[in-house]
Amino acid sequence: MTKHPDALDALATADAAELQETLLEICSSPGWAAAVAASRPWSDRDALLAANAAAMASLTVQDLADAMAGHARIGTPKTGDATSEREQAGIQGADTALLDELHEANAAYEAKFGHVFLICATGRTAATMLASLRERYPHDAATEAEIVRGELRKINDIRINRLLDEA
């Protein structure tokens, strides 16, 4: 009986172009994808998640912008994008007034910080995302950038785990 490589082994041994394509589906920052790819092979899942954390910690301002560009506005998942729709499932069924408040708060946040409000939306309701947005709005740009970095790491961890579990 031949052993089929598990998802981690397949990822670790993928050719460079295939690996980059897969990693860019997790996070749209080429800098992040290059840093994670350079850390292979990974001995186990925890090593890959550690590579994500290390890559996130090293991202430049431009790398963070690249990473955020791959995310839909909270309250408006990308139509037809299963990942975006799954991650923002908490907005489904929210009443119109709450969604309107979320859109207004998003617009104010984007005007202040110059990018979408980014939060790990998995498991959160529209109301909790709105509360977090309002809580974070008073931050200065440097503080908010570090929070965004942490939220991106959480999102990437979820996406990496999902990739490894589905394969």
Describe the structure.
It comes from Kitasatospora cinereorecta. GO terms for molecular function: 2-oxo-4-hydroxy-4-carboxy-5-ureidoimidazoline decarboxylase activity. Pathway: Purine metabolism; urate degradation; (S)-allantoin from urate: step 3/3. The protein has 9 helices and no strands. It has 167 residues and is mainly alpha-helical. 66% of the residues lie in helices and 0% in strands. The model has no long low-confidence stretch (mean pLDDT 91). It has helices spanning 7-13, 16-26, 30-38, 45-58, 61-69, 82-87, 96-113, 126-136, 141-166.
Spans where pLDDT lies below 50 across 5 or more residues: none
Sheet with the most strands, sense and barrel status = none
Mean pLDDT: 91
Radius of gyration from CA coordinates? 17 Å
The residue fraction in helices comes out at 55-70%
**Overall geometric form:** globular
Helix/strand order, N-terminal first: HHHHHHHHH
How many helices? The count is 9
Structural class: mainly alpha
- Total count of strands: 0
Strand content: under 5%
Q: Kindly, what is the distance between the CA atoms of the first and last residues, rounded to a whole number of angstroms?
A: 19 Å
InterPro entries: OHCU_decarboxylase (IPR018020), OHCU_decarboxylase-2 (IPR017595), OHCU_decarboxylase_sf (IPR036778)
Pathway: Purine metabolism; urate degradation; (S)-allantoin from urate: step 3/3
Keywords: Decarboxylase, Lyase, Purine metabolism
GO molecular function: 2-oxo-4-hydroxy-4-carboxy-5-ureidoimidazoline decarboxylase activity
Short structural description:
With 167 residues, the protein is mostly helical. The protein is built from nine helices and no strands.
